[in-house]
């Protein structure tokens, strides 16, 4: 129950109703309204130790644009390959920590591993993956399924042995080939998700927003997206085949695999002007409170202009003018909403004062959006 208080005079019961509204918007930009992101930067201020686990990706090279941090990228391996031991327990490597982190955060707990659809209806377990983790302040309540596309440029992985495909050796292939990835949902299948229920994970497949899924009868699967978490997991094996990522698999060197994903994303934007297009879904709760002010209520005030403030205790607090006794009226300016414990939880100001007298009743509608 929510109670209302008018002019700090008394408390009255109210009636209310709750509604949910769904809003979609662009995911990027300082105002979270831009649909396509074409500029990608890493930060020289990010520490070397944290870069062994992930890279923060920004949309601006300015050091002052902290609000322009867009997403982070990482690489995870079920056995910890692709990165060095950090000096703790056996196989205590950054890639194993990343794999465990996303397995715990993305799965419900009863799944044995992370799986994607494969050819001929078979499920394939992803044992190592690349991560795109969109910042919470960007994707809001969830990514909008069916409305994002990420483009990846092919790398020059075939030009180097696996154990040395790190650092400056990782470059965009001279072929300038780009693969485009979307999820396998569509508008019709998203309709039922506009509720309190958790969005189901979607498969990442080859395709574009413009033309849809490539070869929809037998699509090529690249990973899985978790819309509620803003997390995209890309199968490293699929990227090795289709985009020459040549993911470092040794556990004895710092493979820096996650930077390959950054090079591929930024390369597609630079050489093909094809970036990361996405939309977000915001769920807004709207609560309407209907307040009835009866004719016998709120006709007096303890405002200093209404009562006396005399030092004489016998007259202190008495109504200042006789007309206020015979023909009382007040002006309502503020509404306060309280919970069951009589704790103030919201305050609203009226656009203009409303006169109140014993000869009138009011119905005030309060609209809360959160």
């Amino acid at each position: 129950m929510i109670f209302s208080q008018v002019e700090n005079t008394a408390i009255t019961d109210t009636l209310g109703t709750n509604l949910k509204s769904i809003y979609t918007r662009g995911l990027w930009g300082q105002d979270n309204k831009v649909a396509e992101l074409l500029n990608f930067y890493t930060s020289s201020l990010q520490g070397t130790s944290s870069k062994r686990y992930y890279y923060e990706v920004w949309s601006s090279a300015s050091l002052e644009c902290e609000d322009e941090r867009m997403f982070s990228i990482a690489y995870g391996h079920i056995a910890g390959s692709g990165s060095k031991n950090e000096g703790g327990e056996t196989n205590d490597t950054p890639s194993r920590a990343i794999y465990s982190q996303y397995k715990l955060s993305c799965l419900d707990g009863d799944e044995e591993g992370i799986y994607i659809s494969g050819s001929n209806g078979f499920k394939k377990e992803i044992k190592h993956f690349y991560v795109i983790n969109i910042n919470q302040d960007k994707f809001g309540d969830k990514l909008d399924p069916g409305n994002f596309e990420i483009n990846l440029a092919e790398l020059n992985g075939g030009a180097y042995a696996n154990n040395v495909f790190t650092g400056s050796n990782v470059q965009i292939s001279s072929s300038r080939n780009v693969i485009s990835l979307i999820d396998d949902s569509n508008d019709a299948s998203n309709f039922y998700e506009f509720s309190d229920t958790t969005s189901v994970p979607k498969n990442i497949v080859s395709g574009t927003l413009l033309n849809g899924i490539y070869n929809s009868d037998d699509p090529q699967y690249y990973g899985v997206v978790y819309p509620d978490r803003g997390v995209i997991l890309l199968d490293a094996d699929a990227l090795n085949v289709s985009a020459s990522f040549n993911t470092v698999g040794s556990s004895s060197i710092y493979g820096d695999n996650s930077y390959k994903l950054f090079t591929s994303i930024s390369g597609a934007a630079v050489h093909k002007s094809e970036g990361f297009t996405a939309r977000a879904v915001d769920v807004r709760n709207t609560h309407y409170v209907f307040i009835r002010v009866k004719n016998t209520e709120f006709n007096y005030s303890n405002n200093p202009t209404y009562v006396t403030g005399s030092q004489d205790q016998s007259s202190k607090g008495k109504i200042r003018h006789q007309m206020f006794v015979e023909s009382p009226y007040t002006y309502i300016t503020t509404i306060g909403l309280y919970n069951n414990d009589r704790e103030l939880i919201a305050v609203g100001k009226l656009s203009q004062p409303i006169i109140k007298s014993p000869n009138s009743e009011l119905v005030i509608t309060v609209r809360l959006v959160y």
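Residues 28-277 form one domain. The first strand starts at residue 3 and ends at 6.
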